[in-house]
Amino acid sequence: MRVENCGRIPASQDWKTCRLSMTRSIKALRCRCASNRRPSHTPLIYAHKSPVSRRIRKDNFLKTIEEINAARQAIVDTAAAEERNLTDEEYAEFAALEAEGEATRRTEEVRARQAAYMAPNASLQVAAHVAPPKDDDTQTRALEAYLRSGRINADLETRAQNEGTPSAGGILIPSMIETEIQKRLLTYGGVENEAKVRNDPDGRPYQINYNDDTANKAVFVSELATPTTGGADIVYGDPVVLTSHAMTTTGANQNPIALSFQLAEDQPDIVSDITDQIVERFGRGLAAAWVNGNGIGQVHGITTNTVTEATFTAAGPTKNELIDAKRAVDPAYRTDAIWIFNDQTLAAIEKLEDANGRPLWTPAAQAGLETPIGGMLLGHRVVIDQGFADYTDGSTNRWGVFGSIKRGYLCRRVGGMRLVVDQYSGKSKGQIEYTAHIRVDGAPLQPRAYAVLKNS
Fold it and tell me: Residue 451 in 3-state DSSP?
């Protein structure tokens, strides 16, 4: 039977064909709706329907890490309160919660990264995942917190010692920062840069025995004969005993480094600011000590060597006296010999010329040296150290050295650098105070390896 076309069913189709088509469309619609609905079954990890998981479940999903942690803690607390081990069901649920916690953590990381990508002006900036801090950043950040507050973080190594002269406690400066400080200290003085340096974990006495064997040599001997010349017993000079002497960064009038509380809190890079002050004070103090220290409560400076000396009598340095000073050192120690004096003395030497009008001194660049200052004098490298006195006619100034400093002088460092932050002493003035401490010693190692240049 055919029907009239009413605008809804094509005239070419009968009722049976139309009904079949509608039935298929309804089934397809139901399938699409079913696929979009959340599954009615409980996920596998929630198959154990304990009261704990039901209390914190929201639409069959744990929402936050905190809720997951609370659920795990509740399982442990329940078993502890009943003084029993976890049941198999509780253990399985605990393991499932651990897996869910890891999944939630990963999800939160992805959300944070996606939020960075979708941030305003994302096209103008690089959206990057912020990685966790490096391991070696931990102590730096802990040091920064200590400098701002004076409270010691568990990540910092404390040090309170009372050996030798009593000294304050505090913390050991992290090794990465201390290494950088030590590199910068070398720029203040040439002696430590060129000398032999010994780093010891403690300050127990260390004895140096030296001898000068340059007058002896091996000789030929006939078979079964006894040598008659050339040999001698080894004779040692007076031993030098190195200990350790404390040095601190207190400046004028024994005042420590101080910052106002406001600066300590607001300074963007307080670690660099404080270490700059530490470097400057230790740099100047050590440069003077390595040169002129008298050994009484401090190091024996390099100029305390009285075994080998070269005396200058003229109003200023002369070519002949410089040549004679070289000869004061045995050739065995001249292969790596250098000159060390201050910049003012170098200025006087730069004016000296040989018989042909050529300067005795050669600039660093012309001599092929990498250092911007210094240069070469009579075939040997020049090192500038402002710890030395000026060349002064008529004085007794010990104004320089020449020889193998690496074999002739020893610098000793003991332990690490310590830092004390005092938030109480300057409290009435609104200040927080910083004091750094080191322990060092030094002494001539082989007095014949170098000559002290002096006026008379």
Answer: strand
CB 62 within 8 A of CB 71: yes
- Residue 152 has what pLDDT? 66
- Give the residue carrying structure tokens 């253990």: 91
Average pLDDT of every residue of the chain:
77
Count of residues in the chain: 456
Both tokens assigned to 374: 């210094």
Rounded CA-CA distance 82/76 in Å is 10
**Structure tokens, 176:** 């990465």
Give the burial string for 51-67 (b: 16+ CB within 10 Å, else e): ebbeebbeeeebeeeeb
pLDDT at 242: 87
Structure tokens at 36: 């979009």
d(CA 254, CA 257): 10
State phi, psi for 299 to the nearest 5 degrees: -75, 160
Other residues' Cβ atoms within 10 Å of the Cβ of residue 424: 9
Looking at residue 341, what is its pLDDT?
95
Residue given tokens 């220290």 in the structure block: 293
DSSP characters over 22-68: HHHHHHHHHHHHHHHSPPSSPPGGG-S--HHHHHH-BTTB---HHHH
- Work out the average pLDDT over 135-144: 67
pLDDT 10s digits, 22-75: 666 666 666 665 555 544 444 444 444 444 444 444 444 545 778 888 888 888
